[in-house]
Design brief:
Shape: globular
Order of helices and strands: HHEHEEHEHEHEEHEEEHEEHHEHHH
Strand content: 5-15%
Number of helices: 13
Number of strands: 13
Radius of gyration: 28 Å
Amino acid sequence: MASLVLFNGAKTHTGVLGIVCLNASKASYSTDVPSWYRPLKSTNPATFKRGPGGRSSFNGVVATVFGCSGFLGRYVVNKLGKIGSQVICPYRADSAEVQHLKVMGDLGQILFHPYYLRDEESIRKAMKYSNVVINLVGRDWETKNFSFNDVHVDGARRLARIARESGVEKFIHLSALNASEHPTPCYYKDGSKFLQSKFHGENAVREEFPNATIIRPSDMYGQEDRFLTYYAHFWRRFIRLVPLWQNGNKTVKQPVFVGDVAQGIVNAIKDPDAVGQIIQAVGPRRYLLRELVDWFFRVMRKDESWGYIRYDARFDPTFKLKVALTEAIQLSHPIGNLHKERVEREYVTDVVEKSVPTLEDLGVQLTFMEDQVPWELRPFRAGLYYDSAIGEFQKPAPPQVLA
């Protein structure tokens, strides 16, 4: 066709230029296979790696992060986007609630897809092109639509099964430290249903995806968490009175920074030794709950401003009444995150098994609470606009560390 245009329809032209144009026009169709074409040996996204590394590269990881809009989810998406991963973010609420995740990766690398935990077709579409699936879906309290078993057991089983059927290479599941079939009761006689459902959720994931990596985090702290803000909220105490089970002397906690957990999940994707392993995500130090709560209030300078008194919650029936009242009047979110499950888990001692790998085995450099917590609690300080450089108040002593 090119030769006809060039020579005004002179079909009998026998010049060299006409022959060249005719030959060139025969190879210009899009359906023709070029001579340099070679079929792909693999459709694994890792074979399409591009760039020297970093945000504007593609490292070959296509990850679907279920629970991306949660507390831990945004940290995981952010760290995946920094290293050039393509991230699919399934969401079940309004799309505006996950739009802040779009800037965590390069242009076109953070994608969104609506899903419903009980709709297998939407789940299958969300992980259709992924080689990594991360399950961060969880609930701290039960609702009329979703119980603990619906989310932590049935939902986790469904995600693991569809991931295996879709050919996903790595499945990472978030569980909980102290997950047990029969949790030891502390403040309530029936124990924690949350920890019980997390235990059964681990078994369900193992049945459907035997090589899944299980992450067991302890209490995570960070911005907008449910650990530091739980104690900082006014609803947790009675003005100057702070109830704790056995005054906080029988509970040992090993909190972990949320950024360290997210980094451990990212490292587990790249570490072949993490396949099929259980990882304990705990902080570097152990504390008595009494020491932690005292230190939190010292950091917020509540003792200098008005003081507080810590006492044994076992001898205060009004505290249980307050928790029950909060659950009765809540619409969607408990006031101050105060509900029965949170109170029960608050007093469960963190048990770390020495034979089970931790975040340090994944190459994570752990953050110390003494370095991070003052920054996280700064918005709750009694003198929020007070310039600490004046030095009127002494720097609070750190909590005592257990051996």
